[in-house]
Amino acid sequence: MDNYNLDITYLEKRMSTVNSWEDWAVFEKEFFDDTDWPEKDIDEIIKESEEKAVYHNGLKWEHITVSYELSPEYYYWYEYCSDYIFKKLEPEQHDINTNEQGKWCAYCKVYTDNSDMRICPFCGRKLFNMQD
Ligand SMILES: [Zn+2]
User: Fold this and answer.
1) What is the pLDDT of residues 59-98, one digit of tens each?
2) How many whole angstroms from 70 Cα to the centroid of ligand 1?
3) Ligand 1: distance of its center to the CA of 72 in Å?
4) If you measure from the C-alpha of residue 126 to the centroid of ligand 1, how many angstroms do you get, rounded to a whole number?
5) Which of the residues 4, 20, 25, 96 has an alpha carbon 20 to 30 A from that of 31?
6) By residue range, what is the domain housing residue 102?
């Protein structure tokens, strides 16, 4: 995962200069180029998809399976940037999603259908709107 060490200060500085979907495509290519991402093998994906939901403070958290083999930290920052730019470029749709869609933790790979949650109770990181 050495290739995916991110300089977060630089990342955030660059992210603040993204003002269009064209900028985002360039940004994404620079920091999060998925053509290089290793994929999990199918057995691993099947095994993960069978993971049972966990319950925490009255909420059900379902496991989310992602097909790439990436460090949780790196995946979190990818979602962090995606969410940031979506909010910046499509604020109205982002608001709707924030209020209506469930939330997921890109670090822990868990999902709840409770839209009011903001912080992951397992790792303390920001939760993101679940995308379809
Ligand atoms: Zn988490």
Assistant:
1) 999 999 999 999 999 999 999 999 999 999 999 999 999 9
2) 15
3) 9
4) 8
5) 96
6) 2-129
